[in-house]
Design goal:
By secondary structure, this protein is of the alpha/beta class. It has helices at residues 29-44, 67-70, 77-95, 112-119, 143-152, 156-165, 171-176, 189-200, 205-219, 223-238, 241-251; strands at 5-10, 13-18, 50-55, 60-62, 101-105, 108-110, 122-126, 130-132, 168-170, 182-184. Helix 1 (29-44) runs parallel beside helix 3 (77-95) and helix 9 runs antiparallel to helix 10 (223-238). It starts with a strand and ends in a 10-residue tail after the last helix.
Length: 261
């Protein structure tokens, strides 16, 4: 169905694989369109509780933009502008997902690939991966992904240093900066991904949706407005069928049977 990505569904998990291994899984205009389509389809699929994003092979998760296509000599200025806007749309779509998005970082995440990794709710990386923004080396700057990276790092000065120098971070430092949740030996990567996805798939899909949306909406609000908004979301949460089922199951010491309502 797709030319540049592959999809797979198993045990309530939908996996999207960036599948241009020979091109280091670089993001082409076609991949951008296909990734947007796959994310939307999984988000609307009631049988999928969590989405996993990964790359083909074992060397590179995603090397960023494919300059040979996105900056090709035949592309007009307007075409390039629209292509960058379409790439930015991926991050808007990810923020608005109803399902949790988990990043399985199987290799180096560079440029736009680093942006995609950090846009995931939970990021699990093999310990030999590297993270960086090498755009400065070819006369560019990581403009689009800055909005995502800055929201998740605990060290903005380290972030701007990486962008200005093109220096790469190892997985442990990326974790220390808040860009990665878990760093594991490569042979344990799939086991860690399975562990976390299994935990998520046992939760109410309705409350996952409400909570995830509230988290990202609240993040950009002033403190007092955020509290008011969150109080309203809590009120909505208490009116769902799943919260009644969850409390009943807890009191009856059984597993809840979620309806997603």
């Amino acid at each position: 169905m797709y030319q540049t990505i592959a999809t797979q569904e198993k045990d309530k998990v939908g996996t999207i694989t960036l599948s241009r291994e020979e091109q280091r899984n670089a993001i082409s205009p076609t991949m951008t369109v296909e990734l947007l389509d796959a994310l939307s389809k999984y988000d609307d699929d009631a049988n999928i509780f969590v989405i996993v994003l990964t790359g083909a092979g074992s060397k590179v998760f995603c090397a960023g933009a494919d300059f040979s296509e996105s900056m090709g000599a035949t592309a007009s200025f307007l075409e390039r502008h629209e292509g960058q806007r379409r790439f930015a749309e991926i991050f808007k779509v990810i923020k608005g997902l109803k399902k949790p998005l988990l990043g399985r970082i199987n290799g180096h995440a560079l440029g736009g690939g680093l942006g995609l990794a950090c846009a995931c709710d939970i990021v699990i990386a093999a310990e030999d991966c590297r993270f960086g923004t090498p755009e400065i080396n070819v006369g560019l700057f990581p403009y689009v992904i800055m909005a995502t990276l800055l929201r998740f790092t605990s060290a903005p000065k380290r972030l701007i240093e990486m962008m200005l120098t093109g220096e790469r971070l190892d997985a442990r430092e990326a974790q220390q900066l808040g860009l990665v949740n878990h760093v594991v030996p490569r042979e344990q990567l799939d086991a860690k991904v399975d562990e976390i996805t299994k935990k998520i798939t046992t939760k109410s899909p309705a409350i996952l949706r409400l909570g995830r949306r509230a988290f990202y909406t609240m993040r950009d609000m002033e403190y007092e407005k955020a509290l008011e908004y969150l109080a309203s979301v809590l009120a909505i949460n208490t009116m769902t069928e799943d919260v009644a089922e969850g409390i009943a199951a807890f009191l009856e010491k059984r597993e809840p049977q979620w309806k997603g309502k």
